[in-house]
Every structure is written in C-alpha cells, then in structure tokens.
Amino acid sequence: MNLEFIPQIKHTNGDNFFLLAGPCAIEGEEMALRIAEKVVKITETLKIPYVFKGSFKKANRSRIDSFTGIGDEKALKILRKVSETFKVPTITDIHTEQDAAMAADYVDVLQIPAFLVRQTDLVVAAAKTGKVVNLKKGQFMSPESMQHAVKKVTDSGNDQVWITDRGTMFGYQDMVVDFRGIPTMKQYAPVVLDITHSLQQPNQSSGVTGGRPALIGTMARAGIAAGVDGLFMETHFDPKNAKSDGANMLDLGLLEKLLTDLVAIRKVVNSL
C-alpha cells in the first residue's frame, strides 16, 4: 500500500500499520495541540505512519443541544496549525458537498461519515478535490456493498481511497465488527478498523451515545491479527469531559502501551 502521496506522512518504508487518531471534535486550539503532541511523540518512537484526526464540526448528533463545533473556519485553521506545528497530515469528516471544497483547503484526507457513505454527490465531491477519501462503512451496509462506494471515487478520477469499518448495527443499541469483512473489503481498497466507534452503544434513551472503551485494546489486537492496513481511534486526555463521544474514546494516557503492543503483534503477523 502506497502512503507516500500524503503530504508530510512519515515512516512509510516499513511494514507497520498506519494510524488515524485524535479527538472526536476540535474543541479548541490548546486541546488539539496537546493531543497531537503526545500522539506524534509516540508514533515517532514506534515508527507508525500517522494522520491527526479531528472533526471540524459534528453534524450527526442525537439531540439538538449536542455539541457541534466551535465554528467551521476556526476549527479548520486549528487543524492546519496542528499540521504545520508537528509536520503531520490531517483528516476531518465532511457532511455536504460544500464542506468538501472548504475542508480540502486545510486538510489532507477527507472522511465520509458512515451515515452518509451512500450519498453519491457527497462522495463524488470529495473525490474531485483530489484528496485521499476515507469511506466509513455504513452500519447498515455489507462489506461487499462497499465496492460500489469505492467505485464512485475511482470513477471520479481519484484512486486514493480507503475503507474504514466502524462496525455494523446489532439490534438497536450495540455495534459488532464482523472480521470476515476485512479480507473482502481489502479487495477494493486499503482497510482501516475504527476501534472506538465500533464499540459505541448508540440510541440510548438519554440521547447521549454510550460505549465500551475497556474493549478498545481487544478490538485493536483483533484487527491487527486480521490484517487491517490501518487503525482509526479517537483519544482524549479527559474523555469524561470531552464534548463529543467521550463514552467510547481511549484515554490518551493508555495510548503508548496499546500502540507498543500492536506494533509487536504486527511484527508477528508480518513474519507469518
């Protein structure tokens, strides 16, 4: 898999997985820089290709009073500052065709949320920016159906596309990852496993999504063993007080040990 086309990405000449990680949402400049600094330090030591993740706005919310962002341009400028400060690429999710062109001026990878991955105009708009497009598999979609989402990108003249599995709805309030889908989707594009959203417990009566963060390590180890190309995770130094998705984020203090273990597992997988 070729990552060299992504500006500023490092450690692409090894056999490691790549990492998309950061807070769910950009809450402010200080928090974004603090998280980025920690993750960059760890990934530099472990030689993991790294892309900083942060949503410049949140459109898929359970309640109208849920946090949606600090302002589009303000958050995008913070993503640019993270990139310039730490010399790393960045990724953010988009929700409208207008978002695609706007965000492409600030970040290196555009992410299509799982709820929106069948929206043809949105996927095509992202593809036509020339940026890498990360397609999150819909919770309602089979692995096989993701080939059509990938084809929308490639038919738009962009062959830089990834698929991220973030689980499939299991009943009304739980998610499950079917690891049989990973080799299937790898036929269409590099595959990333989202090890935090796949542990969400959505549709809670409170209107606040729950999660099972104690299982993040289990999910990550299983993904590496199953042969994923990359991992996606949301992390925060204070998940309980994060303004979005705190219930399923990884505590930043646990990240180094987890990634160290995963690199060791990847070496074993590569040797088989």
Describe this structure in words.
Helices cover 34% and strands 18% of the residues. It is α/β, with parallel strands linked by helices and 272 residues long. The protein has a single domain (20-271), classed as Alpha-Beta Barrel (TIM Barrel). The strands form three sheets. It has an eight-stranded parallel beta barrel, surrounded by six helices. It has a two-stranded antiparallel ribbon with strand order 7-8. Strands 10-11 form a two-stranded antiparallel ribbon. It is globular and about 45 Å long. The relative contact order is 0.15. Residues 8-260 form the DAHP synthetase I/KDSA domain. It comes from Flagellimonas eckloniae.
Could you provide a short overview of the structure?
Its EC number is 2.5.1.55. The chain has 272 residues and is of the alpha/beta class.
Structure classification: alpha/beta
Percent of residues in beta strands? 15-25%
How many DSSP-defined strands? Answer: 13
Overall domain count: 1
Cα gyration radius (Å): 17 Å
SSE pattern, N- to C-terminal: EHEHEHEHEHEEEHEEEHEEH
Shape: globular
CATH topology: TIM Barrel
The number of distinct helices, counting runs of at least 4 residues, comes to 8
In this structure, how is the largest beta sheet organized?
A: 8 strands, parallel, barrel
> Biggest sheet: strands side by side, in what order?
1-2-3-4-5-6-9-12
Average of per-residue pLDDT values: 93
Kindly report how far apart the N and C termini lie.
Answer: 18 Å
CATH architecture: Alpha-Beta Barrel
